[in-house]
Amino acid sequence: xxxxxLVAASLIAVxxxxxxxENTVAFAQYMGNVGGEGQTGAYTLxxxxxxxxxxxxxxxxxxxxxxxxxxxxASGVVGASVIAGAVFGxxxxxxxxxxxxxxxxxMGRG
Length: 110
Fold this sequence. Notes:
- By secondary structure, this protein is an all-alpha fold.
- The longest helix is centred in the C-terminal third of the chain and has 23 residues, at 77-99.
- It contains three helices and no strands.
- The two termini are 41 Å apart.
- It has two domains: 1-68, no CATH class; 70-110, no CATH class.
C-alpha cells in the first residue's frame, strides 16, 4: 500500500475521532435528587453522609452478604475466567492435537 495513502487515512481517522469525541464525553456520577416533576435538587453533604451511614449499617447487619461481587458465580470474576479458560483452552488443545499430524508435521513425530 502506498505510504501517502496510509498516512492520509490515519490522519483522517484521528481527526474524525477527535471531532466526534466531544459529543461522547463521559460525565461523573450524577449527584442530584429528582423531584416528582422531574426537577433536580441539591445533593447536600448531610444527605450524602446519611446515605453512607445507612450503607454501613446495612453491611454491618448482614456480614455474610460481602461486597456484592460474585467471585465464584458464573457471571462473576472467577466463574467468567474459568469459562473463558475452558473455551480458549479447548480451542488451543484442538489446534495442538491437529498440529501433531498432517501434511506439515515433522517426520518421525506423527
